[in-house]
Fold each of these.
Amino acid sequence: MLAQQLVNALSLGCVYALFALGFTLIFGVLGVINLSHGAVFMVGAYAAEQAVSHLGLPLWGALIVAFAFSGVLGLVIDLLVLRPLRARNAPHLIPMIATIGVGIILTNAIQGIFGAQNIRFPEQLVSNRTISVEGIDVTALELGIILLSFMLMALLLLALKKTQLGRALRAIAESPRAAYLLGINVEGLFYLTSFVAAGLGGIAGVLIGLYSNALFPLMGKSMLEKGIAVIILGGMGDMRGALIGGLFLGLAEVLSVAYVGSSMRDAVAFGLLFLILLIRPRGLFGTLMERKV
Amino acid sequence: MTVAWFGTFWDVYSNLVLSVGTNALLALSIWLTLACGMLSIANAAFMAIGAYASALLTLNFGWPFPVALAAGMAAPALMAFLIGRPTLRLSGVYLAMATLAFGEVVRIVLLNTDRVTGGALGLNGIPQLTRWWHVALALAVTLAVLWRMRRSRIGRAFEAIKEDETAAGLMGIDVAGYKMLAFVLGAAIAGLAGALNAHLTFFIGPGEYGFDRAVEILTMAILGGIGSLTGPVVGAVILTLLPELLRALQNFRLVFNGLILVLIVLFLPRGIWDTERLRRWAGIVRRQA
């Protein structure tokens, strides 16, 4: 029973982590809480669903479409909204408010086009086979989610750690101005970050759409709230934190549904979050950005 | 003739007009914390606490309306005081996130304490006790108090804290105390708006006080501009009437809401009611004349 719950928690937590990874990447590099990330995640899922039902793409094709569509959307948001605010050197709350507006636009545009009702991916998109190991059932979907998420996260972490590009990004996270003086193409890397982060969000959108078997315009909202919880839990701007925070939230939710009751699922997540903020506002791994006179 | 016309207008639109008033109170409540340099988005939660506290009193115990209103202000103020001490140590985005999380906790608690709050079904049949002059009076008194406060020692302290917290502290300003004052007073105003609103709409439910409402309150203040007291009121008027004016766009009207928010942030960084710009325009007009 417990082992089964842990498997469920792992697959759910992986999607949370994947979503939060993009979210925290944008905060770490651009210094912006991008509250349109939930909407971008939702748009990616819709793009993939359209590609599957109109073009008959297989699952991997749908994932690529979601990554590309969301990625380009993220890039456009950066170009049209975040870049002008950067150029103006607006205080960090201003871009946050602007991205709230972007989120409202995207959510309501999708709702206007596709309606507020749930839509679904075609059933045959994912094999419904189940693997049983010592009495624990793992569906092909869960296994796929876990493998894909870990692969993408490993790829991203490795790229940040080992490549020249990753080193440049970490330099920007430290100080954009110093990075610029060192000859790093800061603006270009901002665009790249927006693209990759949004793309990961799109993939997470497809995975959640498959996992809960429903796409709806407001799906990004609850995900965004969870993303906020995850990055605060893990420490804002910290990649490992997003990973561990995501898994932890998945675990907390699944276990609270199993042992406390389904209505308290969100209460557990947010109660936990509120407590963390009061006791350790920097999160598990983060460093608090504070001015010391 | 005109009276008859006004009567019809009032029958149809009185709720909308009074919503403008309560929304203006909400915008002023977040203005207060913003004026002290804090981005607290807990005002929707304080509004909820005020609404539920007052509605439960009039609904279940038949308390007189003024007392219920006072309770609707006191309950959120007390709550703000309790969570203020640990929460207000945070600043910037951390404070925003903490208050957001607090808002969600309040919403979920309201949702899950069915026996008292009616859970997801909310509270039904709240007596409609709010009259137009209640809202007008509440708004006038709030504006007068805030206006007086801005020009006092407290207002100057807020401004100093907003500009530079560390420097303000070094000048001997009790930063924590003034922040707490802004937070508690803001909560009381939000609670008042919630209490008035609850006795206007007959029904309240936890869904009304979630993230969306919190964002809407913030948007009203930012849209109008937080440089003056007029700004939040202007923002509240616009944002309340906008959906009515955009009714023709049907499903896509909220798209324009979002678009307007983005455009304002991009092109009018100080909001619509930017006193400096208005003065500049007035100056141009005068010179031409």
Amino acid sequence: MIPAKDIAVMIPAYNEGPMIGEVVTHVRTCGYKNIIVVDDGSRDNTRKQALDAGARVISHPINRGAGAASQTGLHYARQQGFPYVIQLDADGQHHPEDMETLIAKMAEGRWDIVIGSRFIQMSEGIPQRRIAYNRVSNLLTNWFCRGSYSDSQSGFRMLNRRAIEKLNLGLDGFGYCSEMIVVGERIGLSIGEAAIKVSYTEYSMSKGQDLHMGITTAVNLIWKLIFHQTH
Amino acid sequence: MRLEIYQIVVPIISAIFIWGLASRFRRSRASMQEVVVGSLFWLAVAVFALFPDFFSRKIARLFGIKSNINAIIFFCLGLIFFFQYKLFFMIKKQQMALTNLTRKIALEQQPDKEVEA
């Protein structure tokens, strides 16, 4: 089994003051002490809440997007030499207990990235709008991939050292979720999935992407994948 | 074939721009995409200037252009599309630079801490 001290739990956060402290505390109670919150230029007290809860905080001076924050976290993990990174959302929708599921999958030794999928065993309470949005995103992502992924937009992921070293992503926004899969495949990383549960609350529903952001994300992803070198 | 002055000047200007793009690419200041799209645009301008009647007839037949005004509108739409592409590309590059700078500042401000066991 992979020891907790080898794992950095990375949480990108933007204006998550009301929830970030609770999420960090929950992760700590699961036995993980290396918690890195990447504060993406929040205007509220996200930084203070995360620090008070015991996380290390890396602060972007200005807001650059979820993808940029995630990539900053990976840079930090690379610098610090962490063998593994688990990334999860700051809005409380993910259950930190599910990290064990991702770790067990990673411990099989076959995967460089393990994606926590909400749709392998359909988690209850996922709004129909989110399901529809994810189906469209999966179609788009899988079109560029050899494999087929059931939850290309999941922010709950585990990466091993090889993935941390090799991945160099360029999308600042939510498109990074798909970009990580497509680029990962292209540079020879193996990607697996493990079933996770999610809890959508009014708070978490107020986060994430709306239609306008979804369209922008798709355009940016297509632009990146067609016109740019991806590693 | 008798050439008008503009039929000499325009291809020369196009060649200068294409040379400029190639030069920027050699110095790693332009991407392959920029060079290809830019070169195609200026090549089209040069060829159009060299054979204006032939291309005017072909384009007019293709798009159903019946007057000079239509031609001007189509030409302007083409220009707008080209500059839109250029602007989008420039903005993307600026955004990437801004993100890299933001990341650098964030990571430099982060004091190294011991990994907790």
